[in-house]
Amino acid sequence: MKSSQANALLLMRSLYPSFSYTEKKIAKYVLAHPDKVLYATVTELAEKTETGETSVLRLCRNLGFSSYQQFKLALAKHQASVSHQVDDRLEEEQDRNEALAMLADKLASDSCTWLEHIRKQLDIGQLQRAVHAINSANQVLLIGMESTGFHSAVISEAQDQLLELGIDTIAVQELGLMTKRAAFLTSKDVLFIISSGQEHDEVLSAIQLARQKQATIIGLAANSGSEAAERVDIRLLVQADQEVHPSFQAKMMQLYVLQVLLSAIALEAKPSDPARNEIHIHN
């Protein structure tokens, strides 16, 4: 490789230990300020480094360059290459940011569309029945399967908010405990089932026991054809679009309907129940 085409700064770093004290002073400045050196004359560089023009020229020759101008030409090529690489990286980063922004916008738009779809499907009559049943209940038994971490969090969140509203609520997600808890229900209680789409015999057995005890049974699910959905008294059902992110839609549906339900319970709270005067929305 010709010296004029070499990476001038890399060459300077590699030969730095062999430089004299004066040459090292010049090299330090060049390595720290390569862009300034491009526009500096040999005299100006000597003045900046408090050395002499002869020392600058000697350093250039030791690096394999025939003149100071040839050294600056190699330096300019290197800086142009670095600048181009930086521009490419910035352009790639900008493209990635734009793609991410488009993805976020698309998901936000889809979410608005899905929420509107859910709102249109929501049966206000069934929702009002659920509000009245829960507000009138002595106790709410909330059951659901621990199919995913998200679904488990939904059950826990629903229990916390109902308790904050002053409603005695027990949440059960372990299959082995569902029928045991359901056996203690009375006609003044509510069995509230939040379904993740899966059905288990334990859930159906809990529904059967609640029916025998004449408790009110509420079901929140995204599958209107499930056996459990057919056995409840009050159905809060929204059919998700199975062609586009059905799992995500089902989660949005559960959160949306739950929030509408809990907000309505708070609004219809009795004046004598200060615990139900407001609802805390958890993020």
Total of helices: 12
Low-confidence stretches: 1-6, 275-283
Beginning-to-end CA distance, first to last residue: 62 Å
Give the CATH H-level superfamily of the largest domain.
Glucose-6-phosphate isomerase like protein, domain 1
Task: Tell me how many strands there are.
Answer: 5
Q: Rg from C-alpha positions?
A: 36 Å
Q: What would you note in describing this structure?
A:
The chain is rod-shaped, with a radius of gyration of 36 Å. The chain starts with 7 loop residues before the first helix and ends in a 16-residue tail after the last helix. Strands 2-1-3-4-5 form a five-stranded parallel sheet, with helices on both faces. The model is unreliable at about 1-5 and about 275-283 (pLDDT under 50). The protein folds into two domains: about 1-120, Winged helix-like DNA-binding domain superfamily/Winged helix DNA-binding domain (Arc Repressor Mutant, subunit A, Orthogonal Bundle), CATH 1.10.10; about 125-275, Rossmann fold, CATH 3.40.50. It has helices at about 10-15, 20-30, 35-40, 40-50, 55-60, 70-120, 125-135, 150-165, 175-180, 200-210, 225-230, 245-265, and strands at about 140-145, 170, 190-195, 215-220, 235. The longest helix has about 55 residues, at about 70-120. Helix 11 links the parallel strand 4 and strand 5. The chain is built from twelve helices and five strands. With about 280 residues, it is of the alpha/beta class. Helix 2 packs across helix 5 and helix 4 crosses helix 5 (about 55-60).
